[in-house]
Amino acid sequence: MAVPHPAGEFRITTLYSVPDDAWYLELDHLPSGGTTLMLAIVPDEDPAREPSVCVCTPTGSGAEHIDIPVPVLRWYLEQVEREVENCRAWMRLRPEVVSLIKELRDEYGGGIGDEHYPPVLARLRAELAQDDLADVLPHAFGRTPEAF
């Protein structure tokens, strides 16, 4: 998933690393061909693992110095903070809900396509109380029951 900065020269690309059990949030610079300038690693299944942010150095021929304006850096770090809060929040739910979220995140990689969402939503509605459904959907898929 990619989220462009309102000014247009930067975007955040979010992806999940199954081997690391962590979300990666890359700050990319679009005019340079999508060069990744920063990488946040947000572990989502082990509260003992701390998130981290790495500064990436462009390499190779033609590598250039790229400035990150402070408003863009704030925007990026706010997005990272939201992801950290989201990942930590679901780990504090009841163990059976945490287990279901982990199962769904593993199966669908943290996101679900529109073609798969309605049958999964119907199944979860049949199996879960409404309060649990409201906890599971955003943390498993980043969606709400009303999202479809």
Summary, kept brief:
This protein is of the alpha+beta class.
Structure description:
The chain is 39% helix and 22% strand. The two termini are 18 Å apart. The longest helix is centred in the middle third of the chain and has 21 residues, at 70-90. The model has no long low-confidence stretch (mean pLDDT 85). It has four helices and five strands, in the order βββββαααα. β2 (10-17) and β3 (22-29) form a beta hairpin. The chain is elongated. It is of the alpha+beta class and 148 residues long. It has helices at residues 70-90, 95-108, 117-127, 130-141; strands spanning 2-4, 10-17, 22-29, 35-43, 52-55. It comes from Kitasatospora saccharophila. This is Immunity protein 8 of polymorphic toxin system.
Keywords:
about 150 residues, alpha+beta, five-stranded antiparallel sheet, 5 strands, about 40% helix, elongated, Immunity protein 8 of polymorphic toxin system
Topology:
Elements: E1 2-4, E2 10-17, E3 22-29, E4 35-43, E5 52-55, H1 70-90, H2 95-108, H3 117-127, H4 130-141
Antiparallel strand pairs: 1-2, 2-3, 3-4, 4-5
Protein name: Immunity protein 8 of polymorphic toxin system
Query: How many strand units?
Result: 5
Mean pLDDT rating = 85
Give the termini distance in whole angstroms.
18 Å
Count the helices. How many? 4
Order of helices and strands: EEEEEHHHH
Query: pLDDT below 50 for ≥5 consecutive residues: which ranges?
Result: none
Based on secondary structure, the structural category is: alpha+beta
Percentage beta strand: 15-25%
Q: State the assembly state of the protein chains.
A: single chain
In what order do the strands lie side by side in the largest sheet?
1-2-3-4-5
| Principal-axes shape call | elongated
> Helix content range of the residues, please?
25-40%
Protein name: Immunity protein 8 of polymorphic toxin system
Organism: Kitasatospora saccharophila
